[in-house]
Specification:
About 25% of the residues lie in helices and about 20% in strands. It contains two helices and four strands. It is an alpha+beta fold and about 60 residues long. The radius of gyration is 10 Å and the shape is globular.
């Protein structure tokens, strides 16, 4: 699994960070950093919630 962000859609709301803080970090300026673009499978649930609850639909999962 690979986590991908569409930087044109991301507005830095931080929902992803609240759902998976070990995978996402949003700066005070609202810039998203993905801390692990290929997270382990045991974090899939957190990643799926981050994708589902992203208010702008900026995140997606690509299967490798």
């Amino acid at each position: 699994m690979k986590v991908v962000v569409d930087r044109d859609l991301c507005q830095g709301h931080g929902v992803c960070e609240s759902e998976a803080p070990e995978l996402f970090s949003v700066s005070k300026q609202g810039v998203l950093s993905i801390l692990d673009e290929a997270p382990p499978e045991d974090l899939r649930g957190q990643v799926e919630r981050a994708v589902r609850f992203c208010p702008t639909g900026a995140l997606r999962i690509e299967e490798d």
